[in-house]
Amino acid sequence: MIEIAKLIIVAFILIGAFFHLIAALGVIRLPDVYTRNHAASKAATLGVLCILLGTFLYFYFIHDHFNSRVLLGILFMFLTAPVAGHLLGRAAYHSGVKMWGQNGPDDYKEYIEIKKSEKYQEYEAYRKKIEENIKAESK
């Protein structure tokens, strides 16, 4: 049983190292900030999760120690790393960093232009007025 656990532990750690290698190659080779950010956030997150899972299994099966801190680290990475990657990409976009020419259409630019339009501002003012009237009637 211990030998099977050791093989699984080694597999998780090697898979995690492989994901880190892919993340490093993606950061070096990809053409723009957005694709590099994608490589770093996705592959590195999976790499850290696999390595932490291998660490948790190591302590659990080899040393008979249930380490809840490692599980909390896995949960923390699983929740925060994708959000951080998204926010970094969004900050780069809003600061004016250009996309690589072959990324495809920029749908978010159209959305921002619609939100800044005069018609949309009128719609938002009208919607807020209706919400205020509904609140006033319910009181």
TrEMBL record:
Entry GO MF terms: sodium:proton antiporter activity
Topology relative to the membrane: Multi-pass membrane protein
Keyword Transport recorded: yes
Taxonomic superkingdom: Bacteria
Location in the cell: Membrane
Family as reported in the entry's similarity comment: Belongs to the CPA3 antiporters (TC 2.A.63) subunit G family.
Protein name: Na+/H+ antiporter subunit G
Organism: Cytobacillus horneckiae
Organism classification: Bacteria, Bacillati, Bacillota, Bacilli, Bacillales
